[in-house]
Amino acid sequence: MAGNDWINSYLEAILDAGPSIGADKSSLLLRERGRFNPTRYFVEEVITGYDETDLHKTWVRATAMRSTQERNTRLENMCWRIWNLARKKKQIEGEEAQRTSKLRLERERARHDATDDMCEDLSEGEKGDTIGDLSTHGDRRKGRIRKTSSIDALDSWASPYKDRKLYIVLISIHGLIRGENMELGRDSDTGGQVKYVVELARALGSMPGVYRVDLLTRQISAPDIDWSYGEPAEMLTPRSSENFMNEMGESSGAYIIRIPFGPRDKYVPKELLWPHIQEFVDGALSHVMHVSKVLGEQIGGGQPVWPVAIHGHYADAGNSASLLSGALNVPMVLTGHSLGRDKLEQLLKQGRQTREEINATYKIIRRIEAEELALDASEIVVTSTRQEIEEQWNLYDGFDLILERKLRARIKHGVSCHGRYMPRMVIIPPGMEFNDISAHDDNIDSDEEGNDDNLTSPNPPIWSEIMRFFTNPHKPMILALSRPDPKKNITTLVKAFGECRPLRELANLTLVMGNRDDIDNMSSTNSSVLVSILKLIDKYDLYGQVAYPKHHKQSDVPDIYRLAAKTKGVFINPAFIEPFGLTLIEASANGLPIVATQNGGPVDIHKVLDNGILVDPHDQNAIADALYMLVSDKHLWTQCQQNGLKNIHQFSWPEHCKTYLSKIASCKPRHPQWIHNEDSFEDSETDSPNDSLRDIHDISLNLKLSLDGEKGENAVAKLSNGVRAAQKVGSSERFYDNSSKLPILRRKHLVVIAVDSVDDANLIAIIKSIFMASSGDIGFILSTQLAISEIHSLLLTGGIAATDFDAFICNSGSDLYYPSNPEDLLYPSELPFALDIDYHSQIEYRWGGEGLRKTLLRWAATVTDKNGESEEPVVIEAMEHSSTYCYSFQVKNPSLVPPVKDLQRQMRIQALRCRVLYSHDGSRLHVIPVLASRSQALRYLFVRWGIELSKMVVFVGESGNTDYDTLLGGVHKTVILKGVFNSAPSQLHLARSYPLKDVLFDSPNILQMDGCCPNYIKSALQQLSILQS
C-alpha cells in the first residue's frame, strides 16, 4: 500500500502527547499468533476501544514486517483505526460546539432579561472600565506596580493598621503541605499552589495589623509519607519580622493547622476527596470556633474574635470555604489557581476523551459545580492575571464580564441592582521573598566572561548533581523547572533544542522535573512524558548536553536558578497555558532572562519586568530562535537581566499583602449577630439536663406567629429593637425567667429527623418510634421542607406536642423555629413557635428578594402544559408556604420542569444567587438563600449554642430532596431508614449536576437499617453510642 508514510508523523504526534490516562491494554497485533485477521482486528480494536500508545507500537511492529503483503494489510488497518480516531474527535467537537452554542444563547438571553429588569438609564455609567479592579499595577499605561521594597515604605503603609488585630483563615486541602522542605513536584497535587499558600500565610502573619493566620489543610498519617504531615499544628517562622516581633502575642503568628478528614492512613489524590468535604468543614468549624474564643480572651475583651475573611484556594477549598464562611457569617475570598471549565475545554479540544470519560478520571463536573458554588458565596475573587478573568472565569455561569460592568456602574451610582450580585475580581500577582537578592545581584554583576574559578569553588551540592550530566558545564544553561505534565510542553522544548544545532553547540539544557525514585512508580501521565523526553534525548543524541536530576529539595531551587545565572543562561516556561508563572518571577529575581509562553499570566509578568521574550508554545522554531537570541547576544542578555532585577521588587510579598489586606478591608464586615455570655452557661451546670429548647424565653426568639400572619413585619422590627435593648442590659436576662432553665446547651445528644421519602402518616410513625426508642438527655429536631404552618398541622394530626421538639428546621433550611410554652401565647390563633431572627441574619447574604421572585415568576410563566389549543401553567407560586427567605412553588407535572442544575444555571447567569431545591416527589420547588440549607442550619446550632456536631444523629430515608447528599456527610452520625415505607424519588433527581457517588462514601458514621420500629431504632442508637447497651 503506497503512501503510508504520512501515518508516521501522525503517530509521533500522538506519542509525544502521551497515552490516554488509565490505558493499560496491549495491542492485539502484539498478541497475535498465526495468520493475521483484519476483520477481528477491526472489530476488537477499532470498534471497542483504542489506546494511542498502543497504536504507535502497532505501527512499529507493522513497518518491521518482512512480508510486503502482511505489512500493507496491517498498515491499511492502521488507516482504518486512525480514521476512527478522527471520526471520534470530530464527533466530540461537534457535540461540544452545539453545547457551547446553546449555552451562549442562554447567557445572552439571560443577560437581556437582567438588563430589562435594571431599566434605569445609565448609558454612560454602565459602560464602566474594562473590568473592576482589574489590575493592581496602578497606571495601566505604565504597566508598573508601585515599588515597596524598603522598610521605610512598609512602615509608612503600616502605621494606620498597627492597632488592628486581624484573624485570617486560609484553606488549601489537597497535596502535601508543610512549612519547610516542601516536596514540590512529588505529585500533581503538590505543586506551585502548595508553595503559594504557605508563603502567603507566612507573609500575612508578618504584616502589621494581622494577629493570627491559620492555613487549614488535611492531616495525613500514612506510611508512605513523612511523619510531619500528621502533626496537628505547625508554626510558620517569619522570614523577616524583626520590626513586628514586639506585636507578637500568645497565640499570634501564622500556623498550618491539619484537620483530620478522609482516609486516616492513606494519602489520596484530590479527585477522591470530594466525598469528605463536609467532614473537613465540620472539623474546620470546630477549630475556628475554638481559636476565636481563645483570641477573644486574649485580645477581644472576652468577645470572640471572628475571622475577618475565609480564603479558599482551588475548587475543593472554595467549596469548603463557602460552607465555613456561611456557618460563621464572615466574608469569603476565593483563588481558583487552576479552573475546571478551562481544563475541561482544553481536554475536549484534544478530542481523545469524551466528557463522560474526562469526568470519570478527574471528577471534573463536581469540581466545576464547586467553583460555581464558591463564586456564589465569594465577596472577592483573587486572580493573578487579566487573562484569567477574561478567558477563564468568564466561562462560568456565575460570572459575566458584561453584566459585571453594568452592576458595578449601578452600585457606583447608587442605583438598585434588583437583587443581582457579582463577585469582585481583583488582580494580585503572587509575591516572593527577596531577602537574599541584594547580595546575589553583586555576584552576578561581578562575574566576568571566562572566569571559571567560580564553578570549581565550593558550591551547593545540587550544582554538582546537575553539572555531572554535562560534557562542558561552562556553557550557558537553559533551565526549565516544572512537573513532567503534558500541559507543561517540555517535549516541544527538547525537540526545539535537539533540532537547532547552533543552540546545541552554544548551550546546555537542564530539566528539573520534580522528584522520582522509579519511573515505573510514577503516575501514568507523568511517566509517559518522562519516557518521551528520554527517547527524544536518545533520538537527538543529547547525552552530555541535557541534565535531568532525579531529586532536589525545595531549598535547592534558588541555587539552581543561581547556577543558570552564573553561566549566563536563560529560564524558559513553554507551557501551553500558564495561569500565572511564579517560576518566572523566581528566575528573574535570581538574575535570569526569561522565555515564556504567550498564553496566560506571563504576558502580564513580562509587561512589568520586560526581561525576556514571549513565544507561541506550539511553534518549535520560535522557541529555539528566542533561546538562541538570548544566549548569543550578550548585550540583550545583560539588558534583560538588569530590567528584571530593577523591577522584581514589584512582586514582593509585602506588596502582595498590602493589596490583599486593602481589598479585604473593603468588604462589608459580617460576623454572628448575637452576643454570648459564656459565664452564664457555666454557672448553670446544676440545671436539669432534661430541659428543652421549648423553655427558651430569649427575647430575640419570641416572635409569635398567627395563623393569618398579621403584623409579622412589625413584630420582627419590634423584636429586633428588643434584642438590642436586652443585649445592653445583660445576656443573663435573655435566657431566664421565673420558670425557664437553660435549653439545648445541656443536651448530650440531638436526634435530627430529616426523612423526606415518606408520606405524613409514615413520618408521624417514625417520629413516635424515635421518641419511644430514645431516653435520657436526648433532644429532638425536625428538619423538613415543610412550612411552619404545615408542621403545626402535622403535629396536631399525630397528637404530638410542639414542645416535644427542641427546634424545627423549616422551608428546606431557610427558617429556624423553637417551640414556645402554650401559656405564653397572647391569642388563640397564635402558633406555638418562636422564630430565630438571628439565623436570618446568617443567611440573608446576597438574597435576591423581590427581584429574584419576579424572575422566578417570569420563568414559571414559560413552563406550560399544552393540551390541545389551551395551555395550563405547570409551576404555580405557593404563597401560603413561602416566607421571607423561601419562595415556594407548586409543580403540577414534574416531567415538564427542568432539573435543578438547569434552573440553577438560569439564575446564575442572571447574577441571582440562590439555592434551588425540588422535593422528593418533585411536586414542590423551593428557592432559598445561597447560604441556607438544612445541613448549614445544624452548623448554626453548633455556632450559636455550642452543640457538638459529633453528638448529632440524623435520620434520613433511602432517598430525599435534592439536598439529600448534604445530610449524609460530616462528623455527625447518620441512620438511613430502609423499607417499603420509602416512596420512589422523582425522575428530576436523576439529572444531577454531578453523580451522587462523587459525594457519598462508606463511613462508620453512616448506618443503614431495615424498618423503623422502636427496637430497631434503639439498636441503631446503641451501635452509634448514643444510647448505652
TrEMBL record:
Entry EC no(s): 2.4.1.14
Top EC group: transferase
Protein name in UniProt: Sucrose-phosphate synthase
Ranges annotated as biased composition (Basic and acidic residues): 96-115
Chain residue ranges for the region called Disordered: 96-142, 438-457
Subunit structure and binding partners: Homodimer or homotetramer.
Annotated PANTHER family: SUCROSE-PHOSPHATE SYNTHASE 1 (PTHR46039:SF2), SUCROSE-PHOSPHATE SYNTHASE 3-RELATED (PTHR46039)
Sucrose synthase first GT-B domain location: 167-394
SUPFAM superfamilies in the record: UDP-Glycosyltransferase/glycogen phosphorylase (SSF53756)
